[in-house]
Structures are given as C-alpha cells and as structure tokens.
Amino acid sequence: MTITASDHAVISQSLIAAAREMGVKLIRSAYSTIVRDANDASSALLDRHGHVVAQAELNAMHLGSISTAFEPFARYYDLSALTEDDVLITNHPYFGGQHLPDIFMFSPIRVGGELVGFAASVAHHIDVGGGAPGLNMAAREFYQEGLIIPPVRFSLSRDWAGGAVERLFAENFRVPEQTIGDLYAQLAGNNTGIARVRQLCEKYGSATVVATMEELQNYAERRIRSAISEIPNGTFDGEDLMDSDGITDDPVRFKARVVIEDDRISVDFTGTSPQVRSNINAPYASTLASTMSCIKAALTAPDVPFNAGTARPIEISAPLGTILNPKHPAPVRARMVAGYRAFNAVMKALAQAAPERVMAAGFDTTTGPYLSHSGAHGYKVYHEIIGGGYGASAELDGCSGVDGPMSNCSNAPVESLDMDFDYFRVVGYGLRPDSGGAGRQRGGLGIVRRYAILKDGIQYAQYGDRFNFKPEGLFGAAAGQEASCVLSRDGEDLNLPSKTSRILQAGDVLSVNTGGGAGYGPVRERSRELVMRDLEDGYITPETARDVYGLEIGSLDR
Amino acid sequence: MSQKSSLIQFPKSVSQALAAGNVVRGTIRPEAFLGGAMTIDSEAARRAFVDLAKSLNLSVQEAATSAIELATANIVRAIQLISTERGRDPRDYVLVGYGGAGPLHACEVAESLGIGRVLVPPFAGVLSAFGLLASDYRQYDTLTRRFQVDETSPEVIDEVYRELRGRAAGRFAALGIDEAAPDYSLTLEMRHVGQAFEVAVELPPEGLSKLTGEELREAFSQVHLRAYSYPATPGKAVEVVSFRLGAVVKTDRLPRIRPQRANGQDPRRSYDLHLRGRTIACVGTTRTGLGADETLAGPAIVDDVSSTIFVPEGWAARLVAGASLEILREDRAK
User: Fold this and answer.
1) What angle do CA A408, A413, A418 make, to 5 degrees?
2) Is the dihedral of CA B277, B283, B286, B287 positive or negative?
3) Which of A109, A226, A427, A446 could cross-link with A435 by S-S, CB 3.0 to 4.6 Å?
C-alpha cells in the first residue's frame, strides 16, 4: 500500500519518539543506580516478526542485537497467538542474548485482535545470583555467573505480582528489592510502547502503521547502502589487543578483515584469538552489535535510524570457538571489553578506507568496579561503569571523562552514592592531566575515581583493560595513556591487575585510574591556540606543552 | 509621529533581513508599517539584497524570496521538533500567528506542515505584552523535606503547608496585591524508597487536616499507576521528597487597548506581490476595513496596527468572534 509522505513522516517519528519515551519511563521508575543513574538499559519497538523498527539511543551494545535476542521466540512460539497477558523473557547468551545481567522482556502489542508488533526492553540487573555479587571473576563456566533464563514465555496474571516467576527471581537474586523493582520498570517502559502504538493504530489504522514499520526499515537500509557506496571498494585489515585474559599473561588478539563491495560490507574476524577460560568472552550478539555500531557510527549520518534494515547490507562472521563467538558454556559476564576490541579492530580497518570518517581508538573499556557488603540487613551491591577518554577524530578532540561509545552509560553522582551506601565514600574524582593522546586533534582525558572503604569484609571485583596496551594514535598522533588501579593499605600502595577480585578492609583507599583516548593527526600540527587552551584548562601540564607540543617556554609566563 | 527607520545596506540582524525581504516581496507595504507611524526606506531594503543576489547569481527578487523561504523552512523545522518528533501530528492543531512577524509567515509555515487553520488574535503584535498585563498574579515556592510516609506524615505536611502559605501571603502583601484572597495548590514530590525520580502528587489544601497516612499512600499509588502503569508495591516504603506550593490571586481586569478607528474611507487597494519567478496582483486592506461577514480570498495583505497579515493564494480570511482573524486553506473551508 502507498502511504502519503506526511503520514510516513509523522508515524515514523512517532515510533522513534515512543521508543525514547519507553526508555525514559524505564529509567525514571528504576531502583538500582546502574539503571536509574547510569542508564544501562535500552528500549525498542519491534514489528510483528520481531525485527527492530525503532530504538532509543541508550546503550549501543544493545543496538542491532535486540532482534537477535528475539529471534528464538519466533522459532519456539506461534507469535500470532500471543496475548497481552504474555511476557517473553530471556537472558541467555547462547540463544541470542548478551550476558546474564541483561534481561530482555518483550510484550506483544495487539490491536483489534491482531498482532501488530512488540514492545521490548532490556536492563542490566545489578545481581542475578551466581558465585559472587554481580560479578564473579572466578567463573570458568557461565553456570557460575547467575540464573540462566532461556527464551520462555510467562503469564503476567499468573506468574508475576506475587506469582511463581517473580518469586523464583526474588529467591535467586541477592538484592531483589532493586532487581524486581527494575523488572517492573522494564514493564512500565513496555506498557508505554504498547499505549503509543495503539494510539497510532487507532488514528491511522493498523495496516498503515504496520506498513510504515516496514518502510522505516527499508529506508534505513537505503541510507546505509548509499553510505557504503561512497567508500572505495577494497579489503582492509585492522587489529587490536586486549592486555590478557586475566588468568595468563598472554595478550588477546582481535583481527577484522573488512571487505567493501559496492553497497555491501562484510567483516570477518578469522584470526582472532580462541575463546578463553575467564569471563571476557563475547557472545555472538555482542560481536554483532560492536561491528554494526562501528560501521554505523563511522559511515552514516546521525539522522539515519538504527533498526533491522540497517543490518541488511552488513555480513559479519566470527568463527565458532573464537573469543568473539565462544562455545557454550564459556563465561561471558565481562564481554564488553572484547566487544570494544572488535569495535577498535573494525575502526582501524575503516581508517584505511575512509580516513576522514573514523575516530582514533579511545580508552574504549568499561572499567566496572563492584563493591558489595553482606550485613544483618542482607546484601548491598554497588556497581557503576567508569569511562575514560574518547579517541580524537579528523576535526575534533576526543571527549574527556565519558563512557565509551558501546556502553554510553552515565556516571553515578557522588551524592547519590553517599546517600545509598554506608560502607564506602567517594573521596576523589577528576580528570587525569596529560592522559589524552597528543595529536593535531587531542585524545580525551581519562578519569581518576577514589574510594575510601569504611567497613571490613567488603567484596571488591573489577574488570578493566588497557593497563598494558595503550590505544594507538592515527596518522602521526600519539597513543592515549594507559589505565591502572591502586590499593592503598596501611601506608603501602599495591598495583592491582586489570581483572581482579579481593576483600577490602576499613581504611583501604582504592584508586581507579582510567585511560585516555588516542590522538588524530601529527602532533606538531596542533594549533597554538588549542595548546594554550589545554594548558589553561589544566588538561596538559607545562612540561607536555613544551616538550610534546613544542610551545615556547616564554609564552608560559602569564 | 513619523520616523525614518534605516535599513542599512547590510542588515545587522536576521529580523532586519527578513523585514527587508518582505518589503522587496511586497508583503510589507512601507507606507502602512505600524499603522503608518513608521516609514520604511524601501530602497535600502532592495539595496540590502543587491550584493547577495549578485554573488548567488540571482535577481534581487529571487534573493529576497529565497531568504523568506529559508526562514519559513527553519520555522517549520522548529515546529517539527516539538510536534512530529514527539509523536504529535501538527495537522491536528491550529497555528496561532502573533508578534510583529508571526502573522506575516504563519500561512506559509502552516502550508508546509499540512495545517489548514491559522488564527491571528487582535493586537497580535503586542499579544505578549497584553498577556502579561492580563495575567493573574501567580507565584510558586518549593521546600525540600524528606521523610517516609507513615501515620505521622499528615502532621508534617500540614506544618510545611502553613509555612509555605505564610511565605506566599507575605510576598503578595509586600507587593500590595490584595484584589482577592489567594487560591492555594499543594503538590508533593513522592517516590518509593530506592527510586531516584519522584512523581507529582497533588493534594487539596482544604483536606489536609483530615488526611491519613494510608490515604497519602493511596494518592501516591494512583499517580504511580498513571505514570508507570502499575500501582505502588504493597509493603514497599514510600517517601516524600519535596513540596511545591502555588498561590494565585485572580484578576478580572483586562487591559483596554484603544482600537483602531476606521476613517470611513475604503482602504482597499491593489498591489504587486513579487514572488519567486512571478509577479501577481494582490488585494490590500486593513483589519478595520474588513466586513463582519466578509471572506477575503488570498492573495491578500491585511494591515493591522501592530502586525501585517499575509493571506497567500489558496487561503481565505474572515473575522471570527468579532476580532480575531481566522485564515483557512481553501480545501479546509466549510
């Protein structure tokens, strides 16, 4: 059927606005700081086949993979028979999911007795059981990482609000007041999506809305094909490294071969290191999301919507048994780091094909400390993502002190942490001068965050990276500074590895120092004005201004 | 009083450029600007576009109409940001044109958005000032006091309400606003303990003394249900975070504006409109020159004291409620 251009514009924008509104609802009603403050969640609307039509721009790791998480349901269930009482739920990394904390919930949208689409949400749940609160660095199988939910359907009226599924979760999760509350928040988001789509169907008719959902995907496909066509054909290789798997000291290698042929692009990760025993493996859905996010970010304009249509001209392969496509039951809790290195490898390949479009490698690591306390009241679990510096690009310096592009989380405000947790206090927070890689465009700065521990017996766990291998600069620029983590106890400083867990005592001070992004373009081409401004802002020290950028000493006298 | 307004060779601002463009186009008539109280140097308006036209290889007329089209497109985009992109269909709305330039561009903007009805209120050019004078006296105050909801809560709420009310009453008195007793409204920002964002729970002030902790919790639950599609969770603690008081002294006084007096002559003339690529004839009149039951078909220009109203081809204007101008797209007219 033909839809008028005006109707298409209004309905498409309404669908995208609805997906954003779902995300807002989810975050506003959530309980754990990782969702309500850090925004580690996503929301989307799917068509009746389970393909993403519109998605809120929250967490890029969920971009392109919500459809993947839905796909098994289309195989197991007769979708057209689903009712408004059904909820589809999964967190299974080997059935299209991400890692166990990411619980996906899909709610069917029915209008006039007909299935029109699905409202979808996913949130990172702060603890889903398993061998340690929130993050079990000792896990060697994913069974040890928490409750595994295969793609199943449950009934809202029978199994929720006091029913069997809610009670099952509450008994398996350490902090159910937060986690169950966050699941309700996901449902609140889904219900918003259902209401908005229903409104659109009432106004324009279901047939028109369904047709627009399809056309929106076709539109995204046309736009990305057009963007790929502008890049020269060819084969381009990129590679990046992770420090180690946390068990041995061997670096982990990520190789991407990108082939551009007219309006199609394929990415092959053959040559990437085999899967590892620790939890840094990335399930295929994460590899998919990382690759597509890189391609979309580098090659397309910001107004190109991200939906299932965007994925059509992109072919991605990662051999089974590599770290980017591990075999069941490999642990995957800390998959974000591997995801980032896949992102970096693809970006480096694209840097040869379209140099003016790419970013230099950023810190691009989620440093995710967990501090947990088990007391008379039960468990209290703190977790947040600490970012670092973005890589610079052809025209811009890298952004300082933000989470990387794949996770896009906010920091948790110190005031919020002080109110909620009585066993630690944030005693330092700032940018690290000189951590941004020098270049014509400078890499963004990393962060220092310091915690004073106030009670004994605090369980600390963390995964991070780029303690050894810095992000490499592009086209004559310098690398970003590496990260580190220091535990100060009884007057002594202990350097911790990037993947670790231990028990902390009152009086300990933990310093998490994250890395900067790499620069872009020759260092000595950076304008004098920008070097002066960096110096005035404290982003670089006088020594760096003089020795690295070549600023004359005389001009330092103010 | 007559002033020569100088539109110099290079307009110093967007509004000057747009005014110049409208003069060149013919939709602002220099002798009728501001009811004749201010004359415009139309030669300077033309001159403003000469260099631009030369550099773009256009005629002065084309350059001027392009500037207006660009301005229209920007206005359309801004409206889309607050309507379409929030899932609201602009075609469901009436576009109100006010301010000096609003009625000049409203119909063209409406055309692009698919809106079929434009309304121009009387005194459109000074509507904001009129509104300011006509508004009720209104003040808002907030106070943070965080506590969990239990049976002692109504007492705390009553105490805070009295404090806020006293502050508001004091401020009205200090400003000499005493036309009527203030109407008060009270809103509590509430959430479940553990949430980071509150929802607004309005409580009628007169019922505060009889409020129970249970009723307060139920009021929160209703709001929570509307906001998040599920009610408050039984057994989960609820807290109040802050208070908001509204105090309004209503005023029935409307400012009286001396109306334009019709001078008995029929002001209707025919003018040239220099649009993109063509020049067409256009009717010009004043608002007071419009008949009570007359429908004026575009292209037409209606001069008002505080603004100029442009009725393009395909649109028609008529007075409604004696004073406002309603302009309908011809395919929308009854």
Assistant:
1) 140
2) negative
3) A446
Place of tokens 């300990």: A508
CA distances from B134 to B251, B252, B279, B323 (A): 8, 8, 43, 17
| Chain A closest-CA separation from residue B112 CA (Å) | 10
Check the CA dihedral A317-A321-A322-A324 and report its sign. positive
Instruction: List pLDDT tens digits, range A414-450.
Output: 998 988 899 999 999 999 999 999 999 999 999 999 9
Mind listing the pLDDT tens digit for each residue in B37-95? Answer: 777 788 888 888 888 888 888 888 888 888 888 888 888 888 887 887 666 788 999 99
* Residue among A6, A16, A188 whose CB faces B114 most closely: A6
Give the bridge partners for A238, in sequence order.
A256
Which candidate, B317, B334, B323, places its Cα nearest to that of B107? B317
Tell me the Ramachandran region of residue A39: left when phi exceeds 0, alpha when psi lies from -120 to 50, beta otherwise: left
B192 touches A at CB < 8 Å: yes
| Closest residue in chain B to residue A10, using alpha carbons only | B84
What is the complex's ipTM, to 2 decimals?
Answer: 0.77
In one-letter notation, the amino acid at residue A238 is: G
Q: Count CB pairs under 8 A between chains A and B.
A: 67
Tokens of A547: 């020795």
Interface residue of B88, B223, B225, B228 to substitute, partner A, most A CBs within 10 Å: B228
What is the C-alpha separation between A299 and A480, in angstroms, rounded?
24
In angstroms, what separates the C-alpha of B265 from chain A's closest C-alpha?
45
Sheet with A458-463: strands ordered across: A378-383, A370-375, A458-463, A499-504
Across the interface, which of A10, A37, A203 has its CB nearest the CB of B196?
A37
Cβ–Cβ under 8 Å, residues A400 and A519: no
DSSP state of A234: E
Place of tokens 């521990």: A453
- Evaluate whether B268 touches B85 at the Cβ level (below 8 Å): no
**Would you call B177 exposed, middle or buried from its count of C-beta atoms within 10 A (0-12, 13-18, 19+)?**
middle
> Is the Cβ–Cβ distance between B302 and B288 less than 8 Å?
no
Q: Which residue of B has its CA nearest to A9?
A: B84
Of B89, B192, B230, the CB nearest to A188: B230
Residue A224 has which token pair? 């990305």
What's the pTM?
A: 0.83
**Closest chain B residue to A29, measured at CA:** B195
| HSE, side-chain direction, 13 A CA sphere, residue B120 | 31
Q: Do B91 and A31 touch (CB under 8 A)?
A: no
| Cis peptide leading into residue A329 (ω within 30°) | yes
- The burial class, CB within 10 Å (0-12 / 13-18 / 19+), for B10 is exposed
A471 Cβ partners below 8 Å, 6+ apart? A344, A360, A361, A362, A363, A364, A391, A437, A443, A479, A480, A515, A516, A517, A518
Q: Which two tokens stand for residue A548?
A: 């690295």
Within 8 A of A16 by CB-CB distance, chain B residues are 85
**Closest Cβ–Cβ partner in A13, A27, A181 for B85:** A13
